[in-house]
Protein backbone atom coordinates (compact mmCIF):
# COMPACT_ATOMS: atom_id res chain seq x y z
CA UNK A 1 0.00 0.00 0.00
CA UNK A 2 2.89 2.34 0.76
CA UNK A 3 4.43 1.66 -2.66
CA UNK A 4 1.08 2.34 -4.37
CA UNK A 5 0.76 5.58 -2.47
CA UNK A 6 4.09 6.79 -3.83
CA UNK A 7 2.95 6.58 -7.49
CA UNK A 8 1.39 10.04 -7.62
CA UNK A 9 1.41 12.60 -10.38
CA UNK A 10 2.74 16.03 -9.48
CA UNK A 11 1.09 19.37 -10.13
CA UNK A 12 2.92 21.73 -12.48
CA UNK A 13 1.44 25.24 -12.77
CA UNK A 14 1.06 26.67 -16.28
CA UNK A 15 -0.05 30.31 -15.94
CA UNK A 16 -1.26 32.09 -19.06
CA UNK A 17 0.80 35.01 -20.34
CA UNK A 18 -1.53 37.22 -22.47
CA UNK A 19 1.26 39.54 -23.57
CA UNK A 20 3.51 36.70 -24.68
CA UNK A 21 0.71 34.92 -26.56
CA UNK A 22 -0.26 38.17 -28.33
CA UNK A 23 3.35 38.73 -29.37
CA UNK A 24 3.59 35.15 -30.62
CA UNK A 25 0.44 35.62 -32.72
CA UNK A 26 1.67 38.90 -34.19
CA UNK A 27 4.90 37.17 -35.20
CA UNK A 28 3.06 34.45 -37.12
CA UNK A 29 3.29 34.01 -40.86
CA UNK A 30 2.35 31.43 -43.46
CA UNK A 31 5.86 30.03 -43.12
CA UNK A 32 4.84 28.73 -39.67
CA UNK A 33 2.47 26.30 -41.39
CA UNK A 34 5.52 24.23 -42.36
CA UNK A 35 4.49 23.82 -46.00
CA UNK A 36 7.81 24.86 -47.52
CA UNK A 37 8.07 27.27 -50.44
CA UNK A 38 4.64 27.86 -52.00
CA UNK A 39 4.74 29.83 -55.23
CA UNK A 40 1.04 30.64 -55.34
CA UNK A 41 -1.41 30.56 -52.44
CA UNK A 42 -4.83 29.40 -53.62
CA UNK A 43 -7.81 28.08 -51.68
CA UNK A 44 -6.46 24.52 -51.16
CA UNK A 45 -3.02 25.67 -49.96
CA UNK A 46 -4.47 28.43 -47.78
CA UNK A 47 -6.86 25.87 -46.30
CA UNK A 48 -3.97 23.56 -45.42
CA UNK A 49 -2.18 26.47 -43.75
CA UNK A 50 -5.31 27.48 -41.83
CA UNK A 51 -5.79 23.93 -40.57
CA UNK A 52 -2.29 24.11 -39.08
CA UNK A 53 -2.45 27.66 -37.75
CA UNK A 54 -6.03 28.52 -36.80
CA UNK A 55 -6.59 28.56 -33.00
CA UNK A 56 -10.13 27.16 -33.27
CA UNK A 57 -8.70 23.77 -34.20
CA UNK A 58 -6.42 23.88 -31.17
CA UNK A 59 -9.51 24.40 -29.00
CA UNK A 60 -11.30 21.46 -30.65
CA UNK A 61 -8.28 19.21 -30.15
CA UNK A 62 -8.05 20.24 -26.49
CA UNK A 63 -11.73 19.35 -26.07
CA UNK A 64 -11.03 15.95 -27.62
CA UNK A 65 -8.27 15.36 -25.08
CA UNK A 66 -10.70 16.27 -22.31
CA UNK A 67 -13.27 13.80 -23.68
CA UNK A 68 -10.66 11.06 -23.84
CA UNK A 69 -9.63 11.85 -20.28
CA UNK A 70 -13.28 11.36 -19.31
CA UNK A 71 -13.02 7.83 -20.76
CA UNK A 72 -10.23 7.12 -18.28
CA UNK A 73 -12.45 8.31 -15.43
CA UNK A 74 -15.37 6.25 -16.70
CA UNK A 75 -13.29 3.09 -16.87
CA UNK A 76 -11.74 3.36 -13.42
CA UNK A 77 -12.70 0.82 -10.81
CA UNK A 78 -13.50 2.10 -7.31
CA UNK A 79 -10.62 1.91 -4.87
CA UNK A 80 -10.86 -0.20 -1.71
CA UNK A 81 -10.92 1.51 1.68
CA UNK A 82 -8.65 0.60 4.58
CA UNK A 83 -9.56 1.51 8.16
CA UNK A 84 -7.89 0.83 11.47
CA UNK A 85 -8.51 1.48 15.13
CA UNK A 86 -6.64 1.03 18.44
CA UNK A 87 -8.13 1.06 21.94
CA UNK A 88 -6.52 0.89 25.37
CA UNK A 89 -8.52 -0.54 28.27
CA UNK A 90 -7.74 0.37 31.89
CA UNK A 91 -7.76 -2.91 33.77
CA UNK A 92 -5.44 -4.40 36.38
CA UNK A 93 -5.40 -8.12 35.44
CA UNK A 94 -2.77 -9.81 33.34
CA UNK A 95 -4.83 -9.59 30.10
CA UNK A 96 -3.48 -7.18 27.46
CA UNK A 97 -5.29 -3.82 27.68
CA UNK A 98 -5.11 -3.25 23.88
CA UNK A 99 -7.80 -3.79 21.25
CA UNK A 100 -6.74 -3.31 17.60
CA UNK A 101 -8.94 -3.39 14.51
CA UNK A 102 -8.01 -3.55 10.82
CA UNK A 103 -10.72 -3.48 8.17
CA UNK A 104 -10.85 -3.37 4.37
CA UNK A 105 -13.90 -2.34 2.35
CA UNK A 106 -13.93 -3.57 -1.25
CA UNK A 107 -16.66 -2.01 -3.44
CA UNK A 108 -18.02 -4.21 -6.22
CA UNK A 109 -20.02 -2.60 -9.04
CA UNK A 110 -22.81 -4.76 -10.40
CA UNK A 111 -24.97 -5.05 -13.50
CA UNK A 112 -22.48 -3.59 -16.02
CA UNK A 113 -22.38 -0.02 -14.68
CA UNK A 114 -18.73 0.46 -15.57
CA UNK A 115 -19.29 -0.83 -19.12
CA UNK A 116 -22.23 1.56 -19.55
CA UNK A 117 -20.13 4.49 -18.35
CA UNK A 118 -17.38 3.54 -20.78
CA UNK A 119 -19.89 3.28 -23.62
CA UNK A 120 -21.23 6.76 -22.85
CA UNK A 121 -17.75 8.28 -22.56
CA UNK A 122 -16.68 6.61 -25.84
CA UNK A 123 -19.68 8.07 -27.67
CA UNK A 124 -18.98 11.55 -26.28
CA UNK A 125 -15.33 11.16 -27.30
CA UNK A 126 -16.47 10.31 -30.84
CA UNK A 127 -18.65 13.44 -30.83
CA UNK A 128 -15.63 15.50 -29.74
CA UNK A 129 -13.59 13.96 -32.56
CA UNK A 130 -16.30 14.98 -35.03
CA UNK A 131 -16.12 18.50 -33.58
CA UNK A 132 -12.58 18.68 -34.98
CA UNK A 133 -13.85 17.80 -38.46
CA UNK A 134 -16.72 20.29 -38.10
CA UNK A 135 -14.35 23.03 -36.96
CA UNK A 136 -12.04 22.28 -39.89
CA UNK A 137 -14.91 22.59 -42.34
CA UNK A 138 -16.08 25.86 -40.76
CA UNK A 139 -12.55 27.23 -41.12
CA UNK A 140 -12.47 26.22 -44.79
CA UNK A 141 -15.95 27.64 -45.41
CA UNK A 142 -15.12 31.02 -43.86
CA UNK A 143 -11.81 31.10 -45.69
CA UNK A 144 -13.48 30.44 -49.05
CA UNK A 145 -16.05 33.17 -48.39
CA UNK A 146 -13.38 35.73 -47.48
CA UNK A 147 -11.17 34.75 -50.40
CA UNK A 148 -14.21 35.12 -52.66
CA UNK A 149 -14.76 38.60 -51.18
CA UNK A 150 -11.14 39.41 -52.07
CA UNK A 151 -11.70 38.11 -55.63
CA UNK A 152 -14.94 40.09 -55.89
CA UNK A 153 -13.43 43.40 -54.77
CA UNK A 154 -10.53 43.00 -57.26
CA UNK A 155 -12.80 42.13 -60.19
CA UNK A 156 -15.46 44.72 -59.36
CA UNK A 157 -12.86 47.47 -58.92
CA UNK A 158 -11.35 46.64 -62.32
CA UNK A 159 -14.77 46.60 -63.96
CA UNK A 160 -15.82 49.87 -62.29
CA UNK A 161 -12.57 51.50 -63.36
CA UNK A 162 -13.25 50.48 -66.96
CA UNK A 163 -16.81 51.80 -66.76
CA UNK A 164 -15.69 55.05 -65.09
CA UNK A 165 -13.12 55.69 -67.83
CA UNK A 166 -15.76 55.23 -70.53
CA UNK A 167 -18.28 57.46 -68.73
CA UNK A 168 -15.59 60.09 -68.40
CA UNK A 169 -15.08 59.98 -72.17
CA UNK A 170 -18.84 60.32 -72.70
CA UNK A 171 -18.92 63.36 -70.42
CA UNK A 172 -16.01 64.96 -72.29
CA UNK A 173 -17.71 64.37 -75.66
CA UNK A 174 -21.02 65.78 -74.39
CA UNK A 175 -19.25 68.85 -72.99
CA UNK A 176 -17.79 69.49 -76.44
CA UNK A 177 -21.19 69.08 -78.06
CA UNK A 178 -22.81 71.35 -75.47
CA UNK A 179 -20.38 74.12 -76.39
CA UNK A 180 -21.34 73.58 -80.04
CA UNK A 181 -25.05 73.70 -79.15
CA UNK A 182 -25.64 70.11 -80.29
CA UNK A 183 -26.99 68.72 -76.96
CA UNK A 184 -28.88 70.07 -73.98
CA UNK A 185 -27.47 70.65 -70.54
CA UNK A 186 -29.79 67.97 -69.19
CA UNK A 187 -28.06 65.27 -71.25
CA UNK A 188 -24.68 66.37 -69.92
CA UNK A 189 -25.94 66.53 -66.32
CA UNK A 190 -27.33 62.99 -66.53
CA UNK A 191 -24.06 61.64 -67.95
CA UNK A 192 -21.99 63.51 -65.35
CA UNK A 193 -24.22 62.15 -62.56
CA UNK A 194 -23.71 58.56 -63.75
CA UNK A 195 -19.94 59.19 -63.98
CA UNK A 196 -19.82 60.50 -60.41
CA UNK A 197 -21.92 57.56 -59.20
CA UNK A 198 -19.53 55.10 -60.83
CA UNK A 199 -16.52 56.87 -59.29
CA UNK A 200 -18.17 56.71 -55.86
CA UNK A 201 -18.75 52.98 -56.26
CA UNK A 202 -15.11 52.54 -57.30
CA UNK A 203 -13.87 54.41 -54.24
CA UNK A 204 -16.13 52.33 -51.98
CA UNK A 205 -14.77 49.08 -53.45
CA UNK A 206 -11.19 50.27 -53.04
CA UNK A 207 -11.87 51.21 -49.40
CA UNK A 208 -13.05 47.68 -48.65
CA UNK A 209 -9.69 46.17 -49.55
CA UNK A 210 -8.10 46.63 -46.14
CA UNK A 211 -11.11 45.25 -44.29
CA UNK A 212 -11.35 42.17 -46.52
CA UNK A 213 -7.60 41.59 -46.26
CA UNK A 214 -7.78 41.63 -42.46
CA UNK A 215 -10.75 39.24 -42.48
CA UNK A 216 -8.91 36.88 -44.85
CA UNK A 217 -5.83 36.84 -42.60
CA UNK A 218 -8.01 36.18 -39.55
CA UNK A 219 -9.59 33.26 -41.39
CA UNK A 220 -6.14 31.72 -41.79
CA UNK A 221 -5.00 32.47 -38.25
CA UNK A 222 -2.28 35.03 -38.97
CA UNK A 223 -2.06 38.83 -38.61
CA UNK A 224 -3.05 40.92 -41.62
CA UNK A 225 0.53 42.11 -42.14
CA UNK A 226 1.66 38.52 -42.74
CA UNK A 227 -0.72 37.90 -45.64
CA UNK A 228 1.16 37.81 -48.96
CA UNK A 229 0.11 40.42 -51.48
CA UNK A 230 1.45 39.36 -54.86
CA UNK A 231 1.06 35.58 -54.87
CA UNK A 232 -2.61 35.04 -53.99
CA UNK A 233 -4.16 32.89 -56.72
CA UNK A 234 -7.86 33.47 -57.38
CA UNK A 235 -8.19 31.44 -60.57
CA UNK A 236 -10.24 28.77 -58.80
CA UNK A 237 -13.22 31.13 -58.65
CA UNK A 238 -13.46 31.19 -62.42
CA UNK A 239 -14.70 27.59 -62.38
CA UNK A 240 -18.48 27.10 -62.35
CA UNK A 241 -18.77 23.33 -62.63
CA UNK A 242 -18.71 20.74 -59.85
CA UNK A 243 -17.16 17.30 -59.68
CA UNK A 244 -20.33 15.45 -58.63
CA UNK A 245 -23.81 14.91 -60.01
CA UNK A 246 -26.96 16.17 -58.32
CA UNK A 247 -27.78 12.69 -57.00
CA UNK A 248 -24.25 12.24 -55.64
CA UNK A 249 -24.49 15.62 -53.88
CA UNK A 250 -27.83 14.63 -52.35
CA UNK A 251 -26.39 11.36 -51.04
CA UNK A 252 -23.25 13.07 -49.76
CA UNK A 253 -25.37 15.56 -47.80
CA UNK A 254 -26.97 12.67 -45.90
CA UNK A 255 -23.84 10.58 -45.43
CA UNK A 256 -21.05 13.14 -45.09
CA UNK A 257 -22.77 15.91 -43.11
CA UNK A 258 -20.72 16.11 -39.92
CA UNK A 259 -23.57 17.39 -37.75
CA UNK A 260 -25.57 14.26 -38.59
CA UNK A 261 -22.73 11.96 -37.54
CA UNK A 262 -22.26 13.97 -34.36
CA UNK A 263 -25.99 13.75 -33.63
CA UNK A 264 -25.77 9.96 -33.98
CA UNK A 265 -22.86 9.90 -31.52
CA UNK A 266 -24.87 12.00 -29.07
CA UNK A 267 -27.78 9.57 -29.41
CA UNK A 268 -25.46 6.63 -28.64
CA UNK A 269 -24.29 8.52 -25.55
CA UNK A 270 -27.91 9.05 -24.49
CA UNK A 271 -28.57 5.33 -24.97
CA UNK A 272 -25.58 4.49 -22.78
CA UNK A 273 -26.75 6.93 -20.10
CA UNK A 274 -30.16 5.26 -20.02
CA UNK A 275 -28.48 1.87 -19.76
CA UNK A 276 -26.41 3.18 -16.83
CA UNK A 277 -29.43 4.58 -14.98
CA UNK A 278 -31.33 1.31 -15.45
CA UNK A 279 -28.33 -0.58 -14.07
CA UNK A 280 -28.35 1.67 -11.01
CA UNK A 281 -31.61 0.02 -9.94
CA UNK A 282 -29.42 -2.81 -8.77
CA UNK A 283 -27.30 -1.81 -5.76
CA UNK A 284 -23.57 -2.19 -5.62
CA UNK A 285 -22.03 -4.49 -3.03
CA UNK A 286 -19.32 -3.72 -0.50
CA UNK A 287 -17.27 -6.59 0.89
CA UNK A 288 -15.70 -5.83 4.28
CA UNK A 289 -13.14 -8.39 5.49
CA UNK A 290 -11.57 -7.44 8.83
CA UNK A 291 -9.30 -8.52 11.64
CA UNK A 292 -9.80 -7.75 15.36
CA UNK A 293 -7.21 -8.34 18.07
CA UNK A 294 -9.20 -7.88 21.26
CA UNK A 295 -7.07 -8.12 24.40
CA UNK A 296 -5.32 -11.21 23.18
CA UNK A 297 -8.31 -12.69 21.35
CA UNK A 298 -7.97 -12.91 17.53
CA UNK A 299 -11.19 -12.41 15.56
CA UNK A 300 -11.60 -12.62 11.75
CA UNK A 301 -14.73 -11.19 10.15
CA UNK A 302 -16.34 -10.78 6.72
CA UNK A 303 -19.03 -8.16 6.20
CA UNK A 304 -21.40 -7.45 3.36
CA UNK A 305 -23.28 -4.21 2.77
CA UNK A 306 -25.54 -2.80 0.06
CA UNK A 307 -28.14 -0.09 -0.34
CA UNK A 308 -31.69 -1.37 -0.06
CA UNK A 309 -33.93 0.13 -2.78
CA UNK A 310 -36.91 0.58 -0.49
CA UNK A 311 -37.94 4.18 -1.08
CA UNK A 312 -36.99 4.50 -4.76
CA UNK A 313 -35.64 2.36 -7.55
CA UNK A 314 -33.94 5.20 -9.44
CA UNK A 315 -37.16 6.02 -11.27
CA UNK A 316 -36.39 9.73 -11.59
CA UNK A 317 -32.94 9.46 -13.27
CA UNK A 318 -34.27 6.67 -15.50
CA UNK A 319 -37.14 8.90 -16.65
CA UNK A 320 -34.71 11.77 -17.28
CA UNK A 321 -32.36 9.55 -19.28
CA UNK A 322 -35.23 8.10 -21.32
CA UNK A 323 -36.54 11.61 -22.05
CA UNK A 324 -33.05 12.77 -23.05
CA UNK A 325 -32.76 9.85 -25.45
CA UNK A 326 -36.04 10.93 -27.03
CA UNK A 327 -34.72 14.49 -27.27
CA UNK A 328 -31.60 13.28 -29.10
CA UNK A 329 -33.71 11.15 -31.44
CA UNK A 330 -36.01 14.04 -32.34
CA UNK A 331 -33.00 16.35 -32.66
CA UNK A 332 -31.46 13.95 -35.19
CA UNK A 333 -34.72 13.73 -37.16
CA UNK A 334 -35.07 17.52 -37.23
CA UNK A 335 -31.44 17.94 -38.27
CA UNK A 336 -31.80 15.37 -41.02
CA UNK A 337 -34.86 17.17 -42.39
CA UNK A 338 -32.99 20.49 -42.22
CA UNK A 339 -30.02 19.00 -44.08
CA UNK A 340 -32.28 17.73 -46.85
CA UNK A 341 -33.93 21.15 -47.08
CA UNK A 342 -30.61 23.02 -47.05
CA UNK A 343 -29.20 20.83 -49.79
CA UNK A 344 -32.29 21.23 -51.98
CA UNK A 345 -32.38 25.00 -51.54
CA UNK A 346 -28.65 25.36 -52.15
CA UNK A 347 -28.84 23.22 -55.30
CA UNK A 348 -31.78 25.24 -56.64
CA UNK A 349 -30.05 28.55 -55.86
CA UNK A 350 -26.85 27.42 -57.56
CA UNK A 351 -28.64 26.23 -60.71
CA UNK A 352 -30.65 29.46 -60.80
CA UNK A 353 -27.46 31.50 -60.52
CA UNK A 354 -25.89 29.51 -63.37
CA UNK A 355 -28.93 30.21 -65.56
CA UNK A 356 -28.71 33.89 -64.69
CA UNK A 357 -25.02 33.88 -65.64
CA UNK A 358 -25.78 32.23 -68.99
CA UNK A 359 -28.41 34.89 -69.78
CA UNK A 360 -25.99 37.68 -68.85
CA UNK A 361 -23.34 36.18 -71.13
CA UNK A 362 -25.88 36.04 -73.95
CA UNK A 363 -26.48 39.76 -73.48
CA UNK A 364 -22.73 40.36 -73.62
CA UNK A 365 -22.57 38.47 -76.92
CA UNK A 366 -25.31 40.71 -78.31
CA UNK A 367 -23.52 43.84 -77.12
CA UNK A 368 -20.26 42.62 -78.62
CA UNK A 369 -22.01 42.19 -81.98
CA UNK A 370 -23.51 45.68 -81.68
CA UNK A 371 -20.11 47.17 -80.79
CA UNK A 372 -18.52 45.45 -83.78
CA UNK A 373 -21.21 46.90 -86.04
CA UNK A 374 -20.76 50.37 -84.56
CA UNK A 375 -16.99 50.08 -85.00
CA UNK A 376 -17.47 49.27 -88.69
CA UNK A 377 -19.83 52.25 -89.06
CA UNK A 378 -17.31 54.47 -87.27
CA UNK A 379 -14.50 53.31 -89.55
CA UNK A 380 -16.71 54.02 -92.59
CA UNK A 381 -17.68 57.45 -91.25
CA UNK A 382 -21.33 56.64 -90.59
CA UNK A 383 -21.03 56.81 -86.78
CA UNK A 384 -19.31 59.36 -84.57
CA UNK A 385 -17.04 58.98 -81.53
CA UNK A 386 -19.92 59.39 -79.07
CA UNK A 387 -21.88 56.50 -80.60
CA UNK A 388 -18.80 54.27 -80.50
CA UNK A 389 -18.01 55.17 -76.87
CA UNK A 390 -21.65 54.63 -75.89
CA UNK A 391 -21.57 51.16 -77.45
CA UNK A 392 -18.37 50.41 -75.52
CA UNK A 393 -20.05 51.60 -72.31
CA UNK A 394 -23.08 49.40 -72.95
CA UNK A 395 -20.77 46.41 -73.37
CA UNK A 396 -18.99 47.27 -70.11
CA UNK A 397 -22.34 47.49 -68.33
CA UNK A 398 -23.32 44.06 -69.68
CA UNK A 399 -19.96 42.65 -68.52
CA UNK A 400 -20.65 44.05 -65.04
CA UNK A 401 -23.92 42.13 -65.04
CA UNK A 402 -22.01 38.94 -65.96
CA UNK A 403 -19.59 39.54 -63.10
CA UNK A 404 -22.44 40.07 -60.63
CA UNK A 405 -24.15 36.87 -61.78
CA UNK A 406 -20.86 34.96 -61.65
CA UNK A 407 -20.20 36.11 -58.08
CA UNK A 408 -23.74 35.11 -57.14
CA UNK A 409 -23.11 31.65 -58.60
CA UNK A 410 -19.85 31.34 -56.65
CA UNK A 411 -21.59 32.23 -53.38
CA UNK A 412 -24.35 29.74 -54.20
CA UNK A 413 -21.69 27.09 -54.84
CA UNK A 414 -20.19 27.86 -51.42
CA UNK A 415 -23.61 27.38 -49.82
CA UNK A 416 -23.97 24.07 -51.67
CA UNK A 417 -20.58 22.93 -50.36
CA UNK A 418 -21.66 23.91 -46.85
CA UNK A 419 -24.78 21.78 -47.27
CA UNK A 420 -22.62 18.77 -48.13
CA UNK A 421 -19.62 19.82 -46.00
CA UNK A 422 -17.07 18.72 -48.54
CA UNK A 423 -15.35 20.45 -51.49
CA UNK A 424 -17.15 20.12 -54.83
CA UNK A 425 -14.31 21.43 -56.99
CA UNK A 426 -12.59 18.04 -57.22
CA UNK A 427 -10.09 18.67 -54.42
CA UNK A 428 -9.46 16.10 -51.71
CA UNK A 429 -11.48 16.06 -48.45
CA UNK A 430 -10.05 18.10 -45.61
CA UNK A 431 -7.21 16.53 -43.62
CA UNK A 432 -8.85 17.69 -40.41
CA UNK A 433 -7.52 15.10 -37.99
CA UNK A 434 -3.96 14.06 -37.37
CA UNK A 435 -2.90 10.53 -36.38
CA UNK A 436 -2.92 11.70 -32.77
CA UNK A 437 -6.56 12.80 -33.11
CA UNK A 438 -7.50 9.42 -34.56
Q: Would you kindly provide a written description of the structure presented here, covering whatever features stand out?
A:
The protein is an alpha+beta fold and 438 residues long. It has one domain: Up-down Bundle (Outer membrane efflux proteins (OEP)), CATH 1.20.1600. The chain is built from 10 helices and 4 strands. A 4-stranded antiparallel β-sheet has the order 1-2-3-4, with no helix packed on it. A hairpin with a 2-residue loop joins strand 3 (285-294) and strand 4.
In short:
The chain has 438 residues and is of the alpha+beta class. It contains ten helices and four strands, in the order H-H-H-H-E-E-H-H-H-H-E-E-H-H. Strand 3 and strand 4 form a beta hairpin.
Give me some keywords for this one:
438 residues; alpha+beta; Outer membrane efflux proteins (OEP); elongated
Itemize the secondary structure elements and their pairings.
Blueprint (H helix, E strand, L loop, with lengths): L1 H5 L11 H9 L16 H11 L1 H21 L5 E8 L9 E11 L4 H67 L5 H36 L25 H11 L1 H22 L5 E10 L2 E10 L8 H66 L4 H36 L18
Helix pairs in contact: 3-5, 4-5, 5-6, 5-8, 5-10, 7-9, 8-9, 9-10
Radius of gyration: 37 Å
Overall mean pLDDT stands at 89
Strand order of the largest sheet: 1-2-3-4
CATH architecture: Up-down Bundle
Estimated helix fraction: 55-70%
Shape: elongated
Pfam family, one: OEP
InterPro entries: MdtP/NodT-like, OMP_efflux
Family: Belongs to the outer membrane factor (OMF) (TC 1.B.17) family.
Region (Disordered): 70-92
Amino acid sequence: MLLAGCAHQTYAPQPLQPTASAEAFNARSLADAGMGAVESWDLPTLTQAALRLHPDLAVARAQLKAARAAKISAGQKPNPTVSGNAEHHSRADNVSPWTMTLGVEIPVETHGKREARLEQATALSEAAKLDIALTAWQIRSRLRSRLLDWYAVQEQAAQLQKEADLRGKVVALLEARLKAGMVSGTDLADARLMWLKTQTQLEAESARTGEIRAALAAGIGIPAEALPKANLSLSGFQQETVSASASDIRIAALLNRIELRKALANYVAAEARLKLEVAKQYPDISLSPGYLWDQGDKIWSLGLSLVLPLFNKNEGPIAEARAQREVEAQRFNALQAAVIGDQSQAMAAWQSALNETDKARSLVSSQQARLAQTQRQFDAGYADRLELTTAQLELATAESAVLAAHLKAQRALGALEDAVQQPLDGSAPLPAMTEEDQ
